[in-house]
Specification:
316 residues, alpha/beta, Quinone Oxidoreductase, Chain A, domain 1, Rossmann fold, 2 domains, 7-stranded mixed β-sheet, 6-stranded parallel β-sheet, 18 strands
């Protein structure tokens, strides 16, 4: 089957990204063919082809993308996903979906979760990576009902998920963000505070009884220092930014970086939890912009600038 896909032809910036026609490997037993209706972009996508994780020429041309939402086009025999049997015509979210910037993907059935009916394909494509990362961070910091948690960088993709999940689970959330995002964060149940000089004092004034846990999603010196100063039990500090000061100060490092905990089991189990939360109405994905698949370079350029606060999604 011929498909159209986005590849990086060399290591570098968004200009190395192009569209190709290629042959899709046919599905085998236990796999499904999924027509991609939307593919979410993520900063890690950019890191792969920018050379952040190395510049091995044998990996070129490099297919891009990690999460998609779409419709099952074909199955090989009877197959069952994490939640239910899969059939032609089912709407699904596939994560992880390597090479997901494409018109179609083949995936193991266990990676295809039923899409909530109250989500668009664009929203659904951006649910899993940020959502599972948020749940991993909250679990690592042992955030529970009645706790006060500080979320540094709360207006990004992972931050918006973490805020919603923590609030729904009964925690009090203090969220650092630029003032332009405070109204949104308040609407989600968080108490926003602005970055910059005096942050520690502002948080202490807001939470005189202390902060139980903190999550660093931005890796700035300020985020690391303030988190360590506020949380007495340093086992309840977690960061997803392996190169940030938080990791150097001893916060739990999560994700793909050196010596970080990838949280594979936690993130895998979190997929159905995320779907449940969406269906119950306590969690939503914010889509900042959509681009045609042919404009993937422009989408990644916007992504790399770091100014978006919702998902940037490709539409095949």
């Amino acid at each position: 089957m011929k498909i159209t896909a986005v590849v990086a032809t060399k290591y570098g910036g968004p200009d190395v990204v192009s569209l190709i026609d290629t042959e899709l490997v046919e599905p085998i037993s236990g796999q499904v063919l999924v027509e991609v209706r939307a593919a979410a972009t993520n900063p890690i996508d950019y890191k792969f082809f920018s050379g952040h994780y190395g510049d091995d020429p044998s990996k070129l041309p490099m297919r891009l993308g990690l999460e998609v939402a779409g419709v099952v086009l074909a199955t090989v025999g009877e197959v069952t996903g994490p939640s239910a049997p899969l059939h032609v015509g089912d709407e699904v979210i596939v994560y992880p979906a390597p090479g997901g910037y494409a018109t179609a993907v083949v995936t193991d059935a266990e990676l295809a979760v039923a899409k909530p009916q109250n989500m668009s394909f664009e929203e659904a494509s951006g649910l899993m990576l940020c959502g599972t990362t948020a749940i991993h961070a909250l679990r690592a910091a042992s955030v529970r009902a009645g706790n006060t948690v500080l979320i540094n960088g709360a207006s990004g993709g992972v931050g918006l998920m973490a805020v919603q999940i923590a609030v729904a689970d009964g925690a009090r959330v203090i969220a650092t963000a630029s003032t332009t995002q405070h109204e949104l964060l308040r609407s989600l149940g968080a108490e926003p505070v602005v970055y910059g000089g005096g942050l520690l004092e502002r948080i202490r004034e807001l939470a005189p009884d202390g902060v139980d846990a903190a999550i660093d999603l931005i890796g700035t010196d300020e985020a690391g220092d303030v988190s360590v100063a506020l949380v007495a039990d340093h086992s309840r500090l977690a960061t997803i930014v392996g190169s940030g000061k938080g990791a150097r100060l001893g916060m739990q490092a999560l994700g793909m970086g050196p010596n970080a905990d990838p949280g594979v089991a936690i993130r895998s189990a979190a997929r159905l939890d995320l779907v449940r939360r969406v269906e119950e109405g306590s969690l939503k994905v914010f889509v900042d912009a959509t681009f045609a698949l042919a404009d993937a370079g422009d989408a990644l350029r916007d992504l790399a600038q770091g100014h978006s606060h919702g998902k940037i999604v490709l539409i095949p």
